[in-house]
Amino acid sequence: MASDSHRSITLTRLDTGVYRATNPTGASIEFGSLMEDGLSPVELLLAAIAGCSAVDVDVVTSRRTEPEDFTVRIGAEYVRDDSGNILTDIRMTFDLTFPEGEDGDKARRVIPGAVKTSHDRTCTVSRTVEAATPVVVDIL
């Protein structure tokens, strides 16, 4: 029986600086550093961090009521120095609006705990970045 814990994508070059990432179910996204009107790999990393936490928070808050607005902004400083390129000062901000009334109040009350739980425990993406997990590279 296959493991449920393994995650993977296959990256295919479409053109210079343009790629398609495809998961085992066939879902895909095109991106690249030279893609017109597309996301760069760094922007995809930021989207993955924000998206992971957004999913966590959305699941918890939307059990109470649907949001009127659910926006997550994320930014970072791109640093290029003698040791290489890196993002620093990654900052994510949730801007959530729920309807007036008891259900909206319930949703608003769980936001801080949901955001904290996502950051401290359930968001695999940001936790992996913060853990500085090594990346092993093989060449076939």
Would you give an account of this structure?
The protein has 3 helices and 5 strands. The chain has helices at 41-61, 102-122, 124-130, and strands at 10-15, 18-22, 28-31, 69-81, 84-97. A 3-stranded antiparallel β-sheet has the order 1-2-3, with no helix packed on it. A two-stranded antiparallel ribbon has the order 4-5. Strand 1 and strand 2 (18-22) form a beta hairpin. Helix 1 crosses helix 2 (102-122). The longest helix has 21 residues, at 41-61. The two termini are 26 Å apart. 11% of the residues are buried. The mean pLDDT is 95.
Salient structural properties:
140 residues; alpha+beta; three-stranded antiparallel β-sheet
Give unreliable regions as ranges: none
Shape: globular
Largest sheet: 3 strands, antiparallel
Number of helices: 3
Instruction: Classify the beta-strand content into a percent band.
Output: 25-35%
Q: Structural class, from secondary structure content?
A: alpha+beta
Q: Taking all residues together, what is the mean pLDDT?
A: 95
Q: In terms of quaternary structure, what is this?
A: single chain
Distance between the termini: 26 Å
Number of strands: 5
- What percent of residues adopt helix (DSSP H or I)? 25-40%
> What is the radius of gyration computed over CA atoms, rounded to a whole number of angstroms?
18 Å
Order of helices and strands: EEEHEEHH
Strand order across the biggest sheet?
1-2-3
Which SSEs are present, and which pair or pack?
Blueprint: E1 10-15, E2 18-22, E3 28-31, H1 41-61, E4 69-81, E5 84-97, H2 102-122, H3 124-130
Helix pairs in contact: 1-2
